[in-house]
């Protein structure tokens, strides 16, 4: 059962998402919150698999809520998915940097919304290749000074290759085909790289790859 926490200051939005989720046999809404602070407290109380978090809220916004969830050792199993009205913008990018697994636009069609919840529950990123390219082009065209230099040295050559391909938006199956290995081995390389770089998920791995200088936009 996928346990979901809804965090949005608009009751109509929460009720709409809840109505969709309640129809699914494998998904359960465990709690609702009207602001980020309340959402953080409910996340600690219920330990959901997914926290659907609005980007702009009173008391505590989605970025800070995401950052605090990501920093809490008790909430390592909580995958934050940002809800936004506008698509990929600076707020969403900052939330991804803070540890969000991905984002959804609120006018998403129901089928895609339910699919996204299940994808996030598996621990996969909600960053399609097209979104990854937009993120790269708009926000990481100038790599920041590395904050993960020592950790990069711990990556094997195959793990580095896998990280580069993740940063280009490839799935595990596509990485496997490119590296001529099995999908399971590709997943292992990616997961080990995430562990060594202390990335919560693939979305954060993409950002770390660019901010560390391991990958640059012209390589993508």
TrEMBL record:
<dbReference type="Pfam" id="PF00196">
    <property type="entry name" value="GerE"/>
</dbReference>
<keyword id="KW-0805">Transcription regulation</keyword>
<dbReference type="InterPro" id="IPR039420">
    <property type="entry name" value="WalR-like"/>
</dbReference>
<dbReference type="InterPro" id="IPR001789">
    <property type="entry name" value="Sig_transdc_resp-reg_receiver"/>
</dbReference>
<feature type="modified residue" description="4-aspartylphosphate">
    <location>
        <position position="54"/>
    </location>
</feature>
<keyword id="KW-0597">Phosphoprotein</keyword>
<protein>
    <submittedName>
        <fullName>Response regulator transcription factor</fullName>
    </submittedName>
</protein>
<dbReference type="InterPro" id="IPR016032">
    <property type="entry name" value="Sig_transdc_resp-reg_C-effctor"/>
</dbReference>
<dbReference type="InterPro" id="IPR000792">
    <property type="entry name" value="Tscrpt_reg_LuxR_C"/>
</dbReference>
<feature type="domain" description="Response regulatory">
    <location>
        <begin position="3"/>
        <end position="121"/>
    </location>
</feature>
<keyword id="KW-0238">DNA-binding</keyword>
<feature type="domain" description="HTH luxR-type">
    <location>
        <begin position="148"/>
        <end position="213"/>
    </location>
</feature>
<dbReference type="InterPro" id="IPR058245">
    <property type="entry name" value="NreC/VraR/RcsB-like_REC"/>
</dbReference>
<keyword id="KW-0804">Transcription</keyword>
<dbReference type="InterPro" id="IPR011006">
    <property type="entry name" value="CheY-like_superfamily"/>
</dbReference>
<dbReference type="Pfam" id="PF00072">
    <property type="entry name" value="Response_reg"/>
</dbReference>
């Amino acid at each position: 059962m996928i346990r979901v926490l809804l965090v949005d200051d608009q009751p109509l939005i929460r009720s709409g998402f809840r109505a969709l989720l309640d129809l699914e046999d494998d998904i359960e809404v465990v709690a609702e919150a009207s602001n980020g602070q309340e959402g953080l407290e409910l996340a600690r109380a219920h330990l959901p698999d997914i926290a659907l978090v609005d980007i702009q809220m009173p008391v505590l916004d989605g970025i800070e809520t995401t950052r605090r969830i990501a920093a809490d050792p008790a909430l390592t199993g909580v995958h934050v998915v940002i809800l936004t009205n506008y698509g990929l913008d600076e707020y969403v990018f900052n939330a991804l940097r803070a540890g969000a697994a991905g984002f959804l636009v609120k006018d998403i069609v129901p089928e895609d919304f339910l699919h996204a919840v299940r994808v996030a529950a598996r621990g996969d990123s909600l960053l399609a290749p097209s979104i990854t390219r937009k993120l790269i082009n708009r926000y990481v065209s100038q790599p920041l000074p590395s904050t993960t230099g020592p950790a990069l040295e711990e990556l094997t050559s195959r793990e580095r290759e896998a990280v580069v391909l993740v940063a280009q938006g490839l799935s595990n199956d596509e990485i496997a085909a490119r590296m001529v290995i099995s999908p399971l081995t590709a997943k292992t390389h990616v997961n080990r790289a995430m562990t060594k770089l202390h990335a919560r998920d693939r979305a954060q791995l993409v950002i770390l790859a660019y901010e560390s200088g391991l990958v640059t936009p012209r390589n993508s």
